[in-house]
Amino acid sequence: MIGGGVIGLASAWSLARRGADVTVIERSRCGQGASAGNAGWVTPGLSAPVPAPGVMRQAARWMLDADSPLLVRPRPELSFLRWSLRFAQSCRPRAHRAGTEATLALARDAEEHFDLLRREGVEFEMHADGLLYLVHDESGLEPWLRAYEELAELGFDGDVVPLAGAELHDLEPAVDGAAAGLLARRERHVRPESLTAGLVRDLERRGATIEEGTAVSALQPNSSGWRIETQGGDMHADRVVVAAGVWSRELLRGAGVDLPLEPAKGYSVTARGPEPALGRPIYLTEAKVGASPFDDGSVRLAGTLELTGIDLGLNERRVGAVARATRSYLPSWRPQAGRRDWAGLRPLTADGVPAIGETRPGLFVATGHAMLGITLAPSTGEALAPAVLGEDPPEVLTGLSPLRFARGAAANGNGHVRPRVGAGA
């Protein structure tokens, strides 16, 4: 397993649970990349991909605002231009619905898979208090209600309850300034650092090997499987899973696989604030910022999507915009004690849908989860493990195949793609 973020660790855990001999190779420390500072939401109700009708127009408007939730800085690189063209095509209504269907097929059982982790002994912080959407204008609820109606048509009941202003304050006393809200009662949240740490502990308990501080420079096929080249020497494996987040693209390219993947930078602010504390995660919809309360009394504010290439620099202006987003929804709450600012890179495919499956014989990929990495991590592991172990891949992987981006891929009936035999091999 190449990659020790939440996707790599969850995938390694699913393999180890089935008795496989697993080694996790991580370039830095496990759980320290995009998994470290996100909001930790487990939200099948947010399965719709980033490319959506109207997104291109909105992105063009926001490009002039340095504080906007979405910031795109075009780069004169052929790979970025190709990615952008595919992204624009994926904003069409039919493609967007197909992407939602493919993602929801994986996300639908997220609750069950998180419960499985708990039952099997993985220790981590988890809450099942729902997700509260807040809007400044009641009409702002309509897109979210329609989104959950579409998910219901695809077989997911979000158990949503619209709330008026007074009901919001009764539910969350810190809320003041929102005109209406929507409580999605099936959604959950975890503390992501506790999840990755719990997975590492349980992997070690099951006999898995964890190799941290080991960067993989190349993958080469050989007679027994794959040679994994690192700065500390070569390793050999009969099967390899690349779950290295935004670094997956270059690694796969060297192995002859082209995956259109861009880093989608996000920021978060974690701090303790005044009472009353939040009782559940809140989505500040107009600001596109999420707020998650944790057991230690801290709240994590997370948001923004910045397409600027591989850049982990902390833009103080962008972080400040995330911190200020609470003011019109939670006027009494401010980050006061123990503040920690963070930036991370989330892997975003050109169609916004994860890429999970086999790319060449014995070479698998699990990346492109964008803002759904926590939601989809255990489900990804449980779906991918049978395929890695030589069993028939589950049907849920059909719409997530990384070969859908290969030349010669043919469109199927739902607007997604189906690779022709041999494509990408």
Q: What does this molecule look like?
A:
29% of the residues lie in helices and 26% in strands. The chain has eleven helices and 22 strands. It has helices at residues 6-17, 55-62, 78-89, 93-107, 110-119, 142-153, 165-171, 192-205, 248-254, 316-324, 373-388; strands at residues 23-25, 41-42, 70-72, 126-127, 131-135, 160-164, 180-184, 188-190, 209-211, 216-222, 225-230, 233-237, 240-242, 261-272, 282-284, 289-293, 298-307, 337-349, 355-360, 363-367, 410-411, 417-418. Strands 3, 5, 6, 7, 14, 15, 16, 17 and 18 form a nine-stranded mixed β-sheet that branches. It has a three-stranded antiparallel β-sheet with strand order 2-8-4. It has a three-stranded antiparallel β-sheet with strand order 10-11-12, covered by helices on one side. A hairpin with a 2-residue loop joins β11 and β12 (233-237). α1 packs parallel to α8. The protein is globular, with a radius of gyration of 21 Å. Mean pLDDT is 92; it is low at 410-425.
